[in-house]
Write a structure and sequence with these properties.
heterodimer, A: about 260 residues, alpha/beta, Rossmann fold, globular, B: about 110 residues, alpha+beta, hypothetical protein PF0899 fold, 3-stranded mixed beta sheet, 3-stranded antiparallel beta sheet
Chain lengths: ~260, ~110
């Protein structure tokens, strides 16, 4: 247990952690271990029992603490490629940009096309190019935050890499996880990708204006989402027509008044 | 494919522990992987060889212990093990359960010399 910040990371991750955000761990006393002498070939088993995600969870804990201190509501937005994350955020920025101070961190394997789509006066946008990495990690978000003025933000959206598998394991320090399922993807996506839907706080059924054109089986989709994510709020939205967006905005800014 | 990232974390933990315990070589890494951890064991084995190359774990064996999903019903406290989500109680039909295990991504132990 890290006595400084209360997080549950073991000493290994602390000693390996680098960067300013976790520099305080350098102050921890180093534990002395007695060294036994072994024969060169003597094999022995070391019990470790440490999470492979310990380092990420540690950083996520610090991100979350920082966001809470600054009173920023942070949403990790996840979906498969093409489900409409960027279109939803474009519309959200256009509708709420006048009353809310909004930032967006955009994760993509390559290109800054999405960041360019989202960039507009009064909105802080940071592009994170992950290269070959298929998900965002808490440390990438911490680095992106260095390019943001956190004192001038009410809402922060983290548009994750389009992928329904890998990002599920990585806590970024968000307040809520939002998973999009577009009507064009098919009703059984929640059954095919159980982990990401199980961990969702909010599931948005996007592109609802296309539902009848693609013969979207709404009742089946809702039942599948309910089964996989019994705790999640489910909203049906269309970034094109604006249908259902009031409920989405209420969720983002419960106390704010918007048109 | 985030198996490479995960194995790099595993190796980082392993090297730190091995060094701390005065070991010079790692012969085996044992991971515990939950059924719902979102990891493909075959992809882990594939990535393992690449990630360990040129390290003190080069040539080591990767052992994966599968941890089955286990849920405990929030309503009637019945413990059950569905193969995958959802965790619907087979006894009372309640849709919400606590996940007791099945999300593990853990470096359990090392064999070193």
């Amino acid at each position: 247990m890290c006595t400084k910040c209360g997080c549950s990371t073991g000493s290994t991750a602390q000693q390996q952690a680098s960067g300013a955000a976790v520099a305080h761990h350098d102050a921890h006393p180093h534990h002395e271990h007695p060294h036994h002498h072994h024969e060169a070939d003597e094999r022995r088993v070391l019990e470790v029992h440490q999470s492979l995600l310990a380092k990420n969870e540690h950083q996520a804990w610090h991100n979350r603490e920082r966001f809470q201190q600054k009173k920023i509501r942070v949403f990790n937005v996840l979906s498969s490629p093409g489900a409409g994350k960027t279109a939803l955020l474009e519309r959200t920025l256009a509708d709420l940009g006048g009353t809310q101070r909004i930032g967006v961190i955009v994760g993509d394997l390559a290109t800054d096309n999405d960041a360019r789509r989202l960039r507009r006066p009064g909105v802080q946008v940071v592009q994170v190019s992950t290269g070959t990495v298929c998900h965002l990690e808490a440390a990438m978000v911490a680095r992106a935050c260095e390019q943001l003025d956190l004192n001038a933000l009410d809402l922060l959206f983290i548009e994750n890499v389009g992928n329904l598998v890998c990002p599920a394991a990585y806590d970024l320090g968000e307040e809520q996880r939002v998973v999009l399922l577009s009507v064009t993807e098919g009703e059984d996506k929640p059954l095919k990708y159980p982990t990401i839907f199980h961990n969702a706080d909010v599931v948005l059924i996007s592109k609802s204006d296309l539902a009848s054109a693609v013969e979207f089986a709404r009742a089946t989709a809702l039942a599948n989402i309910h089964r996989m994510a019994p705790r999640a709020r489910i909203l049906e939205v269309s970034a094109r027509t604006g249908a259902g967006l009031t409920a989405w905005y209420d969720l983002l800014t419960p106390r704010a008044v918007h048109v | 494919m985030h198996e490479v990232s995960l194995l790099e974390s595993a190796l980082e933990l392993a090297r730190a522990e091995a060094t701390r315990q005065g070991a010079r070589r790692i012969h085996r890494l044992t991971l515990r992987i939950g059924a719902m951890a979102g990891v493909v064991p075959e992809a882990l084995s594939f990535a393992f060889e690449v990630v360990t190359q040129g390290t003190l774990a080069e040539g080591a064996t990767l052992e994966v212990i599968d941890v089955p999903l286990q849920c405990v019903c929030e309503l009637c406290a019945h413990a059950f093990s569905p193969p995958v989500y959802p965790c619907e109680c087979p006894r009372c039909g309640h849709p919400r359960a606590r996940v007791a295990q099945g999300r593990e991504l853990e470096l359990a132990s090392l064999e070193v010399s």
